[in-house]
From TrEMBL, chain A:
Cofactor: binding details: Binds 2 magnesium ions per tetramer.
Family assignment from sequence similarity: Belongs to the class-II aminoacyl-tRNA synthetase family. Phe-tRNA synthetase alpha subunit type 1 subfamily.
Keyword Zinc-finger (UniProt): no
Species of provenance: Desulfosporosinus hippei DSM 8344
UniProt catalytic activity: tRNA(Phe) + L-phenylalanine + ATP = L-phenylalanyl-tRNA(Phe) + AMP + diphosphate + H(+)
BP GO terms, sorted: phenylalanyl-tRNA aminoacylation
CC annotations in GO: cytoplasm
Cofactor(s) essential for the protein: Mg(2+)
A Pfam family assignment: Phe_tRNA-synt_N
Species classification: Bacteria, Bacillati, Bacillota, Clostridia, Eubacteriales
Entry's localization field: Cytoplasm
Primary location recorded for the protein, binned into one broad class: cytoplasm
Secretion signal, residue range per the UniProt entry: none
Protein name: Phenylalanine--tRNA ligase alpha subunit
Record carries keyword Acetylation: no
Automatic annotation (TrEMBL), chain B:
Domain TRNA-binding: 39-153
Gene Ontology biological process: phenylalanyl-tRNA aminoacylation
Enzyme Commission numbers on file: 6.1.1.20
Record's protein name: Phenylalanine--tRNA ligase beta subunit
Signal peptide bounds: none
Length: 359, 801
């Protein structure tokens, strides 16, 4: 009796196992069939949740296994797991397939005209003279110079007298000045910054500055503008030599105009330097062979310079018996004209946007 | 100074070509601006003789000439009718390029080959001082003494070059041929051969005049006055060689006496003036003019003098304006029999002022202005004596020499060691010896230390450094090596303020504005409109009236640039400038004015057009956006308040800009009533002071951590009256939102249906976030509705559905 009972139970269980198994396989077959028909990743996901999710049909099957014997459970578990693995694999394959199809579709439909212009971020332009000044500044900053400044409306004293140009000095005529009163004028050069800086710094050594800025002369034609820009340079220390001036200016010229530039010094005259020198740089267009730019000479004049006159050192508060110095001054417009090949200096102050937007 | 090479060769040996010599001088510090070849155009022109003249077989108006040009005979066809057999004429041979631009080629005229051209004055650009009278209506006919076959240029003395010296103010000595010769001699190591008077050691072996005294009344204005008395004067033309040299130097020959004075001035550098002796009544006075004193000068103009004018006068009246121009009355004329030739030193300042005032500038005044050698006055008269005798123009009989002041000869020390140090060249003592020898300076040397006697003509050499320059330029600036300063190393860097300006410029350019640079002087009215007439500083001597005052605002300059561009069809302009404005606080200025750096911008037109994005007109918000970029870059909190000045800016579209309660500038659309004046429609602009911005710039960035907890975002749209400012609503939102409200942004502004008239809709995005925890929907909703209630209360706002 007991045996019979056992047998009956066994048969019931067996049937139940068979039923569960077939149910699992049915779920599997149906899922695989559906998978092949689904076209979107969303539907695919939906189906996955329907079968494998917490409330999914396959998960429900697992829950029904509670009635099974300890011996049967592992067997059924294995079946379920096999099916799960198989389905997951199928899903992955189908997903990959769909993704590939979607990519194909996207690539097939997305087409632009690559020759149309890009969306510009409209940026402004910095004036060429400012660019040149900043470049000059950067070169001298790299050589350990500071940038000094002085007023554009200047006293006769700083603009002339402190630079060894007493009243009625004939060299004053080299510069036609804009006057505000008899004693106050628009500075005609950046050189007054030399004395102002020395007054401020002395007895500190070394003095090593450049001073860029606007200067003014009463002149207006194709090659002169009543307002223009200069960069002054001043170095004062014990034992400063004229050869140091040449070395610094050679470095500058090569940085500014190219590695292969050479410079030459020619005797000249400035009331505030002695000895004085005009500095030529080998022509940046022809390299020194002679061309239209350098008028066949191979050289282009770019700046004036010299050893600081003892009187100027004195007026700046330094003892010329103890220290020496050199100074130089260059016209920014001239350098811009050379650097950019500008035909007419007046373009620089005309501010036509078609000109400015080239820079 | 024009230097005739032919003249210079007489004074110094030259073995260089004109162009080479020019280079030598320039590299030696005497800049040669131009080399003029006087023979240009005459290279293939020779003197020929007409051997025969025959009618052209096929042309009535042409003649066939057989012409001897010395070594050969050529056939030339001419149309000229003024020729005779035996005439000497200039012949342009094949290959000549005449001064008038004509090129001579072999040609055939009606079947006859012509191998050159006979030339007229016009073709050679010559005046009627050359050739016979018959020359005027055809070919130039030369005197029969003209040597056949000789180069025509040589015959005229034009195979010569003229160097044009551009002299620096420190070398007035080179306004004398003898000193140019000395310079050439020094630079080329040749010996000069100067007139014996050039070294000034000779004395005039003439008696002192007794019938005339020189009375120098103002010895500051006249250091020395010498006069040479000349009798038996024969006025006539000066010899050709002298005329030629004067012409080459740019001086017009007049007569033998005037030419001698000019010649000696060019040669020795001492201006001279010849008076008709018989016109001098009594003594010669060198004095300043009396008020309203008058003189008729050589140019036949009556001039009114003043007590600043130094004059030469006799006992009765002015004879000459000292150093500037002689008087007509005492002028040398064809009937002059005796002379007083003046050789004096006048104050450079006085001569400069007088020549400016009278508008008279001459070779003489130029030399006095630059300063002449006071030691050379009598030597120049000695040279005059020689020439008077050579030319038979007169007989020197006596002289006077009144001396008030002669500066002592200078001695300047020169140390070999210090020169080596300053120039950076290792110099041997012998090299300095050589330089001083070449300069022909007297000196003594002891252990490398030189004591140099400076010649009186080198007024520029005063201190050791001046001699160092002499050494450097004579041994050549190329000898200076290139070294770098040996002292302490220094770090180059911009000051914070300099860096600030640079960054400002970059931000503005990156935002789309183009930088311009305008003149800092401008029209007074325009500056008064935008700046302050009370503070603007006028120039005494502006270039033009419209550049008459220093600007107190950058705006007029920028508006001008914008208008100019628009007029040139550059219709879309967005520009900025960073520059000084100038503020005087008194008239006239007694101390230097304040220079205030400002930044300003003007925009008019539309942003860039593009096929993808629509362009938009530049408006208030365009520039405000740029200001916000500036504020962000420098960590500034700018406030915008209704503009106070509503006459320049559109009252409904402008703002004053405040930084910590200080007004630092303005922003807005130009007032419609000004549009016509400036030729700009709907221009927007701003102007700001740089200094307050710089002072309040954030020094360093303090970084905030990124919140770890998620943010919750809510949109809120409300309808408020049009007058309500968005900023007011926003700050209310911020206040009510407290710490949890991290960010508020306005994303839409709308007027029109269905919003009621007089109202606008403002839509905000509010982002809530806590640094400590994840916020719940509930608390955010609560906060959001509290904010809404607050706005409703304060602004009568309604939530937009």
């Amino acid at each position: 009796m007991f045996f019979l009972c056992w047998q009956l139970i066994a048969i019931w269980i067996l049937e139940r196992v068979i039923y569960l198994k077939s149910e699992i396989l049915r779920i599997k077959e149906e899922a695989l069939k559906n998978l092949r028909e689904l076209e979107s990743p969303e539907a695919l996901q939906e189906l996955k949740v329907k079968i494998l999710g917490k409330k999914g049909s396959l998960t429900a099957m697992l829950r029904q296994m509670g009635g099974l014997s300890p011996e049967e459970r592992p067997i059924m578990g294995q079946v379920v797991n096999e099916v799960r693995t198989r389905l997951e694999q199928a899903w992955e394959e189908r997903s990959a397939e769909l993704e590939a199809m979607a990519l194909q579709m996207r690539l097939a439909t997305e087409r632009i005209d690559i020759t149309l212009p890009g969306t510009r971020i409209s940026r402004g332009h910095i004036h060429p003279l400012t660019q040149v000044i900043e470049e000059i500044e950067d070169i001298f900053l790299g050589m350990g110079f500071q940038i000094a400044e002085g007023p554009e409306i200047e006293s006769d004293y700083y603009n002339f007298e402190a630079l060894n140009l007493p009243k009625e000095h004939p060299a004053r005529e080299m510069q036609d000045s804009f006057y505000i009163t008899e004693e106050i004028l628009l500075r005609t050069q950046t050189s007054p910054v030399q004395v102002r800086t020395m007054e401020k710094l002395h007895p500190q050594l070394p003095v090593k500055i450049i001073a860029p800025g606007k200067v003014y002369r009463n002149d207006d034609d194709a090659t002169h503008s009543p307002m223009f820009h200069q960069v002054e340079g001043l170095v004062v220390d014990q034992g400063i030599r004229m050869s140091d001036l040449k070395g610094i200016l050679l470095n500058f010229s090569r940085e500014m105009f190219g590695e292969s530039r050479e410079i030459r010094l020619r005797p000249s005259f400035f009331p505030f330097t002695e000895p004085s020198a005009e500095v030529d740089v080998s022509c940046m267009l022809c390299g020194g062979a002679g061309c239209r730019l350098c008028k066949g000479t191979g050289w282009i004049e770019i700046l004036g310079s010299g050893m600081v006159h003892p009187k100027v050192l004195e007026m700046g508060g330094y003892n010329p018996q103890v220290v020496t110095g050199f100074a130089f001054g260059m016209g920014v417009e001239r350098i811009a004209i050379l650097k950019y090949g500008i035909e007419d200096m007046r373009l620089l102050f005309d501010n036509d946007l078609r000109f400015l937007q080239q820079f | 100074m024009k230097v005739s090479l032919e003249w210079l060769r007489e004074l110094v040996d030259i073995d260089q070509s004109a162009v080479e010599l020019a280079e030598t001088l320039t590299r030696g510090g005497i800049e040669v601006e131009d080399v003029e070849d006087l023979n240009k155009g005459f290279e293939k022109v020779v003197i020929g003789e007409i051997l025969s003249l025959t009618k052209h077989p096929d042309a009535d108006r042409l003649l066939v000439c057989a012409v001897s040009v010395g070594h050969e005979e050529v056939t030339i066809v001419t149309g000229a009718q003024n020729l005779l057999t035996g005439d000497r004429i200039p012949v342009a041979l094949i290959g000549a390029n005449l001064p008038n631009g004509l090129s001579i080629k072999k040609s055939k005229l009606r079947g006859v080959v012509s191998l050159g051209m006979l030339c007229s004055r016009e073709e050679l650009l010559l005046d009627d001082t050359v050739g016979l009278d018959r020359s005027s209506d055809g070919i130039l006919i030369l005197p029969s003494t003209a040597p056949i076959g000789e180069s025509f240029g040589h015959y005229l003395g034009l195979d010569n070059s003229v160097l044009d010296l551009e002299l620096y103010p420190n070398r007035p000595d080179c306004l004398a041929m003898v000193n140019v010769a000395r310079e050439v001699a020094s630079l080329t190591q040749k010996k000069p051969h100067l007139p014996k008077w050039a070294d000034q050691s000779q004395v005039l072996s003439l008696p002192v005049a007794t019938d005339l005294r020189i009375i120098i009344e103002d010895q500051d204005l006249c250091w020395r006055y010498a006069g040479l008395m000349v009798e038996d004067v024969h006025i006539g033309p000066s010899p050709e060689w002298m005329q030629r040299r004067l012409k080459a130097a740019g001086v017009r020959p007049i007569n033998n006496i005037v030419d001698i004075t000019n010649y000696v001035m060019m040669e020795m550098g001492q201006p001279l003036h010849a008076f008709d002796r018989e016109k001098i009544k009594g003594n010669v006075h060198v004095r300043v003019a009396q008020p309203e004193e008058k003189i008729v000068t050589l140019d036949n103009v009556e001039r009114t003098l003043n007590p600043h004018t130094l004059i030469i006068a006799d006992d009765t009246q002015p004879l000459a304006v000292a150093g500037v121009m002689g008087g007509l009355d005492s002028e040398v004329t064809e009937t002059t029999k005796s002379l007083m030739i003046e050789s004096a030193h006048f104050s450079p300042v006085s001569v400069r002022r007088t020549s400016r005032r009278l508008g008279l500038r001459s070779e003489a005044s130029n030399r006095f202005e630059k300063g002449i050698d006071v030691s050379g006055s009598v030597a120049a008269l000695g040279r005059v004596c020689d020439l008077l005798q050579d030319l038979g123009a007169g007989r020197p009989v006596a002289f006077v020499d009144e001396v008030k002041h002669i500066p002592p000869r200078r001695q300047v020390a020169l140390s070999t060691e210090r020169t080596s140090t300053v120039l950076g060249i290792e110099l041997a003592v012998s090299e300095i010896h050589q330089v001083l020898e070449d300069l022909n300076f007297e000196y003594q040397e002891n252990d490398g230390l030189f004591r140099v006697e400076i010649p009186t003509y080198r007024s520029d050499i005063e201190i050791e450094e001046d001699l160092m320059e002499e050494v450097a330029r004579l041994i050549g600036y190329d000898r200076i090596p290139t070294t770098l300063p040996q002292g302490d190393q220094t770090q180059g860097r911009r000051t914070p303020e300099q860096e600030f300006r640079r960054r400002m410029r970059k931000v503005l350019a990156q935002s789309g504005l183009d930088e311009v640079l305008t003149y800092t002087f401008t029209r007074a009215e325009a500056d008064a409109q935008w700046g302050s007439a009370k503070h603007s500083i006028p120039l005494l001597n502006p270039l033009r009236e419209e550049l008459g005052v220093m600007r107190t605002s950058l705006i007029p300059g920028l508006l001008d640039v914008a208008a100019r561009n628009v007029a040139r069809r550059n219709t879309d302009v967005s520009i900025f400038e960073i520059g000084n404005t100038y503020w005087g606080d008194e008239q006239p200025l007694k101390k230097l004015p304040k220079e205030e750096l400002r930044v300003a911008a003007v925009a008019v037109g539309k942003s860039d057009r593009h096929w993808f994005n629509q362009s938009s007109s530049y408006d208030f918000y365009y520039l405000k956006g740029i200001m916000e970029a500036v504020a962000h870059e420098f960590g500034l909190k700018l406030e915008y308040r209704l503009a106070e000045n509503q006459s320049l800016l559109h009252p409904g579209r402008s703002a004053d800009i405040y930084l910590q309660n200080e007004c630092v500038g303005f922003l807005g659309e130009i007032h419609p009533s000004l549009e016509k004046e400036w030729g700009l429609e709907r221009a927007v602009l701003f102007e700001l002071e740089m200094e307050p911005l710089f002072k309040k710039t954030r020094q360093t960035v303090r970084a905030h951590s990124i919140p770890r907890f998620p943010a919750i975002q809510r949109d809120l749209a409300v309808v408020v009256g049009v007058e309500t400012s968005a900023e007011a609503v926003m700050s209310k939102i911020r206040k009510l939102g407290g710490n949890l409200l991290q960010h508020v942004e306005i994303f839409d502004v709308y007027t029109g249906k269905p919003i009621a008239e007089g109202h606008k809709s403002l839509a905000f995005t509010l982002r809530y976030q806590s640094l400590e925890r994840t916020l719940t929907d509930e608390e955010v909703s609560l906060l959001n509705s509290r904010i809404l209630e607050g706005i409703q209360q304060d602004f009568g706002a309604e939530r937009r559905k």
